[in-house]
């Protein structure tokens, strides 16, 4: 799977850990920055990741900022994007099974990296249930 990664300065450390994990898992990573601790606007990186998915160049995206809130707000402005802000394993799994989330948003100042890495593994391993959930997500406008 080809996975786009993006973060702001608040998510840089966690993004680096996630990139290592994904490479160890044999996933293809497209790292769209930021790569420095300097303060940057998170919407720019949300846009870059969403553009990869909308164009079909990546199948999934992971966005990390301080809380994950700004990233999820910015990403969900696109009709083709279903971004889920998750802080624990249950919603990470359900965001795939019920919502077919194609972007996972994480708050690096909210959760520890151990939990975040487990969430990434769960989120990538979980398939969409389809069925009744298909018509529900089709109602998003
Ligand atoms: C940056 O300070 C912070 O606002 C950002 O990382 C994020 O938490 C926004 O939602």
What do you see in this structure?
- By secondary structure, this protein is an alpha/beta fold.
- It has a single domain, classed as Sugar-phosphate isomerase, RpiB/LacA/LacB (Ribose 5-phosphate Isomerase B, Chain: A).
- Helices cover 44% and strands 17% of the residues.
- It contains 6 helices and 5 strands, in the order E-H-E-H-E-H-E-H-E-H-H.
- The protein has a 5-stranded parallel beta sheet with strand order 2-1-3-5-4, sandwiched between helices.
- Helix 1 links the parallel strand 1 (2-7) and strand 2.
- The radius of gyration is 14 Å and the shape is globular.
- The structure holds D-ribose (RB5).
Concise description?
By secondary structure, this protein is of the alpha/beta class. The protein contains 6 helices and 5 strands. Strands 2-1-3-5-4 form a 5-stranded parallel β-sheet, sandwiched between helices.
Descriptors for this entry?
alpha/beta; globular; binds D-ribose; 5-stranded parallel sheet; 17% strand; 141 residues; Ribose 5-phosphate Isomerase B, Chain: A
Helix segment count? Answer: 6
Estimated radius of gyration: 14 Å
Integer tally of domains? 1
The third-level CATH topology is Ribose 5-phosphate Isomerase B, Chain: A
- Give the beta-strand count: 5
CATH class placement: Alpha Beta
Structural class: alpha/beta
Mean pLDDT: 98
The largest β sheet comes out as: 5 strands, parallel
- Order of strands, main sheet, comes to 2-1-3-5-4
Parts with pLDDT < 50 across at least 5 consecutive residues: none
> What small molecules does this complex bind?
D-ribose
């Amino acid at each position: 799977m080809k996975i786009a990664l993006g973060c702001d300065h608040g998510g840089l450390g966690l993004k680096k850990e996630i990139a290592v994990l994904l490479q160890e898992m044999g996933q293809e990573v497209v790292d769209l920055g930021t790569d420095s601790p300097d303060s940057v606007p998170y919407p720019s990186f949300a846009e870059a990741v969403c553009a990869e998915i909308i164009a079909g160049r990546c199948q999934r995206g992971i966005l990390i900022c301080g809380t994950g809130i700004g990233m999820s707000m910015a990403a969900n402005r696109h009709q083709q994007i279903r971004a889920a802000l998750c802080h624990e394993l249950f919603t990470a799994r359900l965001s795939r099974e019920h919502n077919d989330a194609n972007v996972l948003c994480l708050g690096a100042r909210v959760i520890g990296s151990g939990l975040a890495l487990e969430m990434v593994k769960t989120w990538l391993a979980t398939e969409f249930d389809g069925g009744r959930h298909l018509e529900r997500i089709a109602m998003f406008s």
